[in-house]
Records
---
Amino acid sequence: MKKLLLVYGHALSHHALHTLLQNDLRLQLLYEVPTVREAIRLIHQQPLDAIILDISAPNQNGLEVLCDLKHAAPGLPILVINGSERPDRMIHFIRLGCQGYLPYTTQSSQVIPAIRSIARGKSCLMPRHHQLLTESQPMRHEQLSLRELQVLFKLIKGQPVNAVADELDIAPGSVSVFRAKILRKMGVTNNAALIRYALTHGLIPAPTTLSRQTRQNPDQTDSNNTGSLAKVF
């Protein structure tokens, strides 16, 4: 029996996934958690065969969560569920290393076979995903290490250095070093440019609301950023 961890999103999709998994005798839903922090804590408690990442939760960037999970458990296959059908968003998840990607329009009958597949260590990507991989060009953020990507996603949503350090359990000085490497590799000079890049290339969706300070002077995000870019998938 394959042991699974579910990082769930909206209550409705959580209920649907729970029901589907409980009805399959070959799959054991060992843990169900709403946050990546809880997921990371549980990953080290018992061997798992796969993670199911439901990215339907509001105010959460699925790409950021995927990076955090990949860093915590590099060898554990992850199936992303309820993703966008926008090509730029799909390709980011696939290039970040998820073993499967099911958009929100996926039929429920396709979910369990996909979970079984990744739990056996196989990928579960559709033909159009392979086509996207073939046709897409490498992007600047793809040269970042996984840890640098984690820091990037937290910086572009407005977290100050100390908050990033606390979340990643590293020293504030390490965050500053990672930030300097990110800026150099990305060819930009400040956090505002990182935010513009992320918005332009679909790393985060266009925000519905920004702090007034950030809208008026985005370059202030480098020194005193208290605003955030909310993610609604």
---
Amino acid sequence: MNERSMSDWDEEENLEETTAQDQQSFILGGSLISIGIIVIAFGVGWGLGVSPLANLTWNWTDLLIGIVAALPLYLFFFCTARLPIKGFQQIQQFLLDELGPRVEHGKVWELFILCIFIGLGEEMLFRGVLQSWATQYGVIAAIIFTNILFGVLHSITRLYVIVATLMGVYMSLLLILFTPQNLLIPVTTHTMYDFMCFMYIMHVYRQQKRDEQAYETE
């Protein structure tokens, strides 16, 4: 194994500093965007005459339901990430390339707070406002309209649009199948699912870097 020069150490230290700055920018930027979506939810809700908080109440039972409901979604993500199917492999590679460097050294609590903002913002807008407003045209029509829009706005790849749409339908059903309706359930499910995916991406990305470093030192 070759000895590392001072320039190598300096380059690595600068890279770590840049990575740390990118991670903080990602968390801050993601949080601000999600807060912006919350503001948009209130604005759209005001325009449509629907309060995004109308069906949001604190309830320990519904919180637990939301946590448990996130497990099937994550299991689907975990399994498809290992399937030898090009479309799913492209999705995972995109997430590793785009999110991996930004969460590699991220603090777990910061990522969790980011996921809370994401889950709250997107669910307030799509399920809390748009789905509630569109229900006047029928429940099925409301679910279709809301989640086609939800899928299109998550267009990483064509397959991901389909997957995001189906996940949106799942969270729409979580809202309407429990009585009384409580937006806390899909908010919690969305939050926990995103958080578990971040943890998965962090783990896989770190493992890939360790494997690359081990290979380079051989």
---
Amino acid sequence: MAFVSARLAVSSGSDGGSIRQAFITEVLQNALGQWLVLFGAALIGLGGAYFIYEGLSEEYRKK
């Protein structure tokens, strides 16, 4: 999966869009694909919540 992701990141031109779409379709059709997307979204959300908390509580000034 890492190899395919790296290949998608460096691909260019009109072929890159179809490769990306095929990869996303393949991942989401996998039984764990939807859970993987949900897990990634949760990680991003938790990271954002942490930075909002740190900004509001001014924890960055104590460091």
---
Amino acid sequence: MFKSRAMNLLFTLMVLVIIGMIVVFFFVFRQQSDGENKGTDIDEIINQLTVDTGEITTNIKGDHFIKLDFNIQVSNKEAKEELEKRTFQVKNAVIYTVSGMTPEDLQDQQGIAQLESLIKKRVDGFLQSGTVTHVYTTEKIVQ
């Protein structure tokens, strides 16, 4: 191809390096995309990582009552087992948190998100086997 043997060798090496880089790129990219598709299965989240608080009814500021129910998702199975044993502390944290709120604090999405964040921080404070990854409000009625 080229007149110089060194140039032929250099060209062949460059082609092989480029082909190798393309193969590595596709291999790494495929592994990353497979990892993204293998996210946590919903059945695993429900059965192994989520604890239902049950219905919690308490009074809030302004002579009003609130009825709440949460599903708390944790990072691992050990944390779920611990959280199931600590349900009395979870209910206490919820009651303590909402007792200082008004109905107006809990009317919009921002108020619910703030409540979920506060509960997440409080529950994380006493959870030792893992962490709370998300708090889902499954029921909210203010009277």
